[in-house]
Each structure stands twice: as structure tokens, then as C-alpha cells.
């Protein structure tokens, strides 16, 4: 079987006599063993066999190098750490919790978020005294899309309540985000694995009070806070030296980009449809200039003027606060070791992967990193 397969794959030398119709003899063998010397005749299969053998001996897995072993050891250390911590451990010693009643208007909620410098908050339904989900930037993106489609309703925008957001989702036919909450006592590793499935970017910590039989929100943990917690406590992050190019971490194909002239409405549409939280702003040559973030929409809406959504991305970026931290970049040669160092020092939400000329090559989001830390290498082996 192998011989036949090989013969058909080997190009037949043209104009050469052959020993049989099915087994053309390679010209070199034919020249070395002219017809008449049957005893030393080399059959095509003899020549072809070593090729077949060399093909089958090509190693299927690359050799295990120190850098591979270190990477595995680093991942194991992180997973072991996450398995002995609970969600509560991620919270700082002192923190504040801002919860919004679903009876507030969307406009009021925007003012509160802006005044408190936050971009999401758990919702509270005081009529039932229960936790009512998480308000995130995505809700505001939906509101933007809703009024773009129903400009006639814009006159009532100030009356829109947080409890109406579910109806907005229905009209837009968008699936409400899965609210995957976790108990503060839940094992961090388990809570994160659950979060991966839902693709949620935050985990509300919700506890149940058996006395009152009510749920209560303790806090909300973000992807950044989890990664910073790892960066500060697991020294083995230093051995995650494999470059992004090698571990193929991040998104490189079909990157949604925009230019300074794209309108905010167009960018918002893409962000909602593709479920992404940012869009890099590039020149026509693909050089990275900036990043439009979903949270930029809060800054636009805070004035209450929905007409601002026809602004271009360039105009929105130039209206950003001077305190905006800027964007974070890395290269394909960077490993998670250096990225964790950056996370330790700065509130990073994503990194743009660029080459030496600032040409955009890819995007590395915090969800990509978390996915890698939890899942990499687990398909082939038992979870360790
Ligand atoms: P994020 O929006 O940061 O939660 O990222 C969710 C997923 O989408 C990750 O796998 C990112 O690498 C990817 N991603 C983020 N932004 C973009 C974009 N502009 N175009 C394509 N993929 C993206």
C-alpha cells in the first residue's frame, strides 16, 4: 500500500522507459542498472521505500526544550495557585461597591458612572430586593444602536429606565449577556473556568443569605484584577518566556479596525456584532494610531446628546480626558513574562501587537490571556 501511494506521489520522469505501467522507474536507477542485469535490478519500490520511511519518521511533536518545560511549569504554578484561592481573595483589603437601582434612568446611571469613575455596576431590584444583573458598557452600546434605529423615540430618551434595557435588547434582537455570578467563597479556578464558557468579562460575586433568603452582591471582579492578582502573587509568571508568535496567543486574522474618519455609530455596530470591546484606529497603510474603546461611548453619552454619535472617531479621541492612560503595545517577540510585568504596574485592558514600524499585527486581550492560562495544553492531557 505504501509503495503504491509513494509511486503515485512521485513525479514520473517523462520519456523514460518503465518496468511496468504502474511503476515508472526513476531515471537514475534505470541508468545505473541497464536492462539485462536482472540480478542487480533495483525495483522502484526499493528506491522509494527509504523516502516513505523518512516521511514516517518525521517527528510529530517538536523536541521538548527548556523554554517549553518552563512554560508548562509556569502554567501549572498559576493553576495550582488559582485552585487554592477563592474569589474573595482577589478583592483588595478595602473596596467600594456602587450598586444601581433598576428604577434609575439611563441618564442618571451615566452621571453616576462618570462621577464615580467606573464603567459598570451591579443592578439592584428594590421591589424584590434581589440582584438584577450587571450594567456594563454593552448596555449603553445597545442604547446607542436602539436610538439610531428609532430616531423618533429620541425625544423620550431621558425617561428610559435601567429596567427598560431588557426591552431594548429584545427590539434589537440581541441575546442578553449570560450573567455568570459566583459565590465569594467559590474556588477561583472554578469560577474562571465558568466565566470562560460565558465569555463574560466580569464576575459578580453574589452571596445568598439563608436567613433572609435573599441574594447580596459583595463585589465584581474584573479580568484585570484577576490577572493582577496572579502577577503579584505567582513568581513563576517570570518563566513564561515563550514569545506570543510561538504560542500563537491573540487574534491576528479579521481584525476589526477603523480610521480617524469612521463614525462612532459604525464602530459601535461592529463592536456589538463581533462582541469585542475595542477597535484599533489605523492609517490606510495599517499603522496603529490609537484604539477606540467601548468605554469611550460613556464619555460621549454623558452630555446626554445622542447626536454626538455622528462624531468621527478622531473627534472622540481628541475629546478624551488628558488623564487617559493611553494604549499599550507589545511585539510578537514578547512573552507573558513581560506582559505580566506590565499588568503589575499598569491598568492594562488589552495590548496591541505591533511590529517595529507600528504596523498592527494583532490584538491581545485579557480574555485571550486568561483563556491561555486556564486551558493551554489541557486538550491533550488531563487537566493539571
Ligand atoms: P475583548 O473584546 O477584549 O473581550 O476580546 C474578545 C476576543 O476578541 C479576543 O479573542 C480578542 O483577541 C478579540 N478581539 C478584540 N478586539 C478585536 C478586534 N478589533 N478585531 C478582532 N478581534 C478582536
From TrEMBL:
InterPro entries: AMPK_gamma/SDS23_families, CBS_dom, CBS_dom_sf. GO terms for cellular component: cytoplasm; nuclear envelope lumen; nucleotide-activated protein kinase complex; plasma membrane. Signal peptide: none annotated. The keyword Transmembrane helix does not apply. One of its GO terms (biological process) is autophagy. The keyword Repeat applies. Residues 1-40 are annotated as: Disordered. Residues 1-22 have a biased composition (Polar residues). Residues 246-310, 323-380 form the CBS domain. GO terms for molecular function: ADP binding; AMP binding; AMP-activated protein kinase activity; ATP binding; identical protein binding; protein kinase binding; protein serine/threonine kinase activator activity. SMART domains: CBS (SM00116). The lineage of its organism: Eukaryota, Fungi, Dikarya, Ascomycota, Pezizomycotina. Gene3D superfamilies: CBS-domain (3.10.580.10). This is CBS domain-containing protein. Keywords: CBS domain, Repeat. Belongs to the 5'-AMP-activated protein kinase gamma subunit family.
Amino acid at each position: 500500500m505504501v509503495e503504491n501511494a509513494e509511486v503515485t506521489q512521485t513525479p514520473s520522469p517523462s520519456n523514460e522507459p518503465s518496468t511496468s505501467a504502474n511503476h515508472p522507474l526513476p531515471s537514475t536507477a534505470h541508468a545505473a542498472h541497464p536492462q539485462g542485469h536482472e540480478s542487480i535490478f533495483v525495483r522502484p519500490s526499493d528506491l522509494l521505500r527509504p523516502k516513505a520511511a523518512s516521511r514516517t519518521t518525521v517527528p510529530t511533536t517538536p523536541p521538548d526544550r527548556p523554554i517549553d518545560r518552563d512554560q508548562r511549569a509556569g502554567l501549572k504554578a498559576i493553576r495550582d495557585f488559582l485552585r487554592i484561592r477563592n474569589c474573595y481573595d482577589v478583592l483588595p483589603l478595602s473596596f467600594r461597591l456602587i450598586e444601581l437601582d433598576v428604577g434609575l434612568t439611563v441618564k442618571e446611571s451615566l452621571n453616576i458612572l462618570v462621577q464615580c469613575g467606573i464603567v459598570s455596576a451591579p443592578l439592584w431590584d428594590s421591589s424584590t430586593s434581589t440582584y438584577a444583573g450587571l450594567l456594563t458598557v454593552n448596555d449603553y452600546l445597545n442604547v446607542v444602536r436602539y436610538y439610531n434605529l428609532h430616531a423618533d423615540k429620541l425625544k423620550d430618551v431621558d425617561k428610559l429606565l435601567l429596567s427598560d434595557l431588557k426591552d431594548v435588547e429584545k427590539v434589537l434582537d440581541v441575546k442578553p449577556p449570560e450573567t455568570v455570578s459566583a459565590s465569594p467563597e467559590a474556588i477561583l479556578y472554578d469560577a474562571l473556568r465558568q466565566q470562560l464558557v460565558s465569555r463574560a468579562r466580569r464576575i459578580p460575586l453574589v452571596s445568598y443569605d439563608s436567613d433572609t433568603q435573599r441574594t447580596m452582591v459583595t463585589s465584581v471582579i474584573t479580568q484585570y484584577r484577576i490577572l493582577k492578582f496572579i502577577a503579584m502573587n505567582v513568581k513563576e509568571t517570570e518563566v513564561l518566556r515563550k514569545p506570543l508568535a510561538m504560542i500563537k496567543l491573540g487574534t491576528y486574522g479579521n481584525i476589526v479596525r477603523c480610521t480617524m474618519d469612521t463614525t462612532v455609530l459604525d464602530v459601535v455596530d461592529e463592536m456589538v456584532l463581533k462582541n469585542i470591546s475595542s477597535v484599533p484606529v489605523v492609517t490606510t497603510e495599517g499603522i496603529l494610531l490609537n484604539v477606540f474603546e467601548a468605554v469611550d461611548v460613556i464619555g460621549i453619552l454623558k452630555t446626554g446628546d445622542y447626536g454626538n454619535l455622528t462624531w468621527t472617531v478622531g473627534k472622540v479621541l481628541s475629546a478624551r480626558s488628558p488623564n487617559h492612560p493611553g494604549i499599550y503595545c507589545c511585539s510578537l517577540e514578547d512573552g507573558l513574562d513581560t506582559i505580566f510585568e506590565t499588568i503589575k504596574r499598569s491598568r492594562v485592558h488589552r495590548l496591541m501587537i505591533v511590529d517595529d514600524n507600528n504596523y498592527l499585527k494583532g490584538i491581545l486581550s485579557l480574555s485571550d490571556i486568561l483563556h491561555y492560562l486556564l486551558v493551554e495544553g489541557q486538550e491533550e492531557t488531563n487537566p493539571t
